[in-house]
Amino acid sequence: MTENNTTDQLDYHKQKKKEEMKQQVITFVLMIVFTIIAFAMVQSDLDALFVIPIILVLAAIQVGFQLYYFMHMSHKGHELPALMFYGGVFTAFLCIIALAVLVWW
């Protein structure tokens, strides 16, 4: 019974690792495509008011991919580091907004 249980656990972990690797490869390919899109938009003669927001959105998506898939923020046991990171991002965002308001006021 324990041999069968161990084999089942091993098969489960192999399948889980395989799915994780598949997600990482897909994410990596998407990040390369986003980078190519950003370079192509910069090389084209499009209006900067159109290009810059799209590049910023693509960059934000890539940061999300990096954190979620490559830094393993989605895994169990990484809740505290994720909380600390997101808290720091929120604090930085508030500081930037506060400084922008002070400069423009």
From TrEMBL:
It is a multi-pass membrane protein. One of its GO terms (biological process) is electron transport coupled proton transport. GO terms for molecular function: cytochrome bo3 ubiquinol oxidase activity; proton transmembrane transporter activity. One of its GO terms (cellular component) is cytochrome o ubiquinol oxidase complex. The keyword Repeat does not apply. The chain crosses the membrane at residues 25-42, 48-71, 83-104. Keywords: Cell membrane, Membrane, Transmembrane, Transmembrane helix. InterPro entries: Cyt_c_oxidase_su4_bacillaceae, Cyt_c_oxidase_su4_prok, Cytochrome_c_oxidase_bac_sub4. It is found in: Cell membrane. Belongs to the cytochrome c oxidase bacterial subunit 4 family. PANTHER family: CYTOCHROME BO(3) UBIQUINOL OXIDASE SUBUNIT 4 (PTHR36835). This is Cytochrome c oxidase subunit IV.
